[in-house]
Design goal:
The complex is a heterodimer of chains A (112) and B (111). Chain A has 112 residues and is mainly beta. Chain A has no helices and 11 strands. Chain A is 0% helix and 54% strand. In chain A, the strands form 2 sheets. In chain A, strands 2, 4, 5, 6, 9, 10 and 11 form a 7-stranded mixed sheet that branches. In chain A, strands 1-3-8-7 form a 4-stranded antiparallel sheet, with no helix packed on it. With 111 residues, chain B is mostly beta strands. Chain B is built from no helices and 11 strands. Classes of the chains: A mainly beta (112), B mainly beta (111). At the A-B interface, strand 5 and strand 10 of A face strand 5 of B.
Chain lengths: 112, 111
């Protein structure tokens, strides 16, 4: 039981390049989330998916797109990376009436 | 006013000490409350949910005061391995799945 997995762990992009961050969970959770974490800013929600087939914007969606591929997988795409998107990206999933969230190990992205 | 506020610390305590963190939240309709722990360069991990009646898990005790809109975390007999950042987290009302995250309180337990 791996929980939440993310790939890649590290990535360096040049400005304007695109990439997709992958996330998968094996806990049969309905809801999945993408966050970014920057020093002094805390965790900020980019997008979330309440259930398979639905996605909604979070606090900082600009410059990102998401796909809920199936119940297990939720990907985050940067179409044209910018230095402001340098951050640590975390995927999470949740289930249950209190919606406790469980996190993947993160992707450290640098955009030069 | 921030939705969830915490004292950033750092708290520096010796091993064996008791340390307490407080957190205040602004939305009186908030439904669920949590403490997460985050080690340096790692993902946040759920430490405990906070229930209205208060709850304890080993050396950790969490309390909720709805009237004053604050949550507390008490760590007894601190261990070196407790050194981390502790994040206070609040969920909004109803079926709102979004969590509101505090910036965290840094704890360093010293030998």
């Amino acid at each position: 039981n791996a929980g939440v997995t993310q790939t890649p762990k590290f990535q360096v992009l040049k400005t304007g390049q695109s990439m997709t961050l992958q996330c998968a969970q094996d806990m049969n959770h309905n809801s999945m989330y993408w966050y970014r974490q920057d020093p002094g800013m805390g965790l900020r929600l980019i997008y979330y998916s309440a259930s398979e087939g639905t996605t909604d914007k979070g606090e900082v969606p600009n410059g990102y797109n998401v796909s809920r591929l199936n119940k297990r997988e939720f990907s985050l795409r940067l179409e044209s990376a910018a230095p402001s998107q340098t951050s640590v990206y975390f995927c999470a999933s949740s289930q249950g009436r209190n919606y406790e969230q469980y996190f993947g190990p993160g992707t450290r992205l640098t955009v030069t | 006013r921030k939705e969830v506020e915490q004292d950033p610390g750092p708290f520096n305590v010796p091993e064996g000490a008791t340390v307490a963190f407080n957190c205040t939240y602004s939305n009186s309709a908030s439904q669920s409350f949590f403490w997460y722990r985050q080690d340096c360069r790692k993902e946040p991990k759920l430490l405990m949910s906070v229930y209205s009646s208060g709850n304890e898990d080993g050396r950790f005790t969490a309390q909720l005061n709805r009237a004053s809109q604050y949550i507390s975390l008490l760590i007894r007999d601190s261990k070196l391995s407790d050194s981390a950042t502790y994040l206070c987290v609040v969920r909004g009302a109803g079926n709102n799945r979004k969590l509101i995250w505090g910036l965290g309180t840094s704890l360093a337990v010293n030998p």
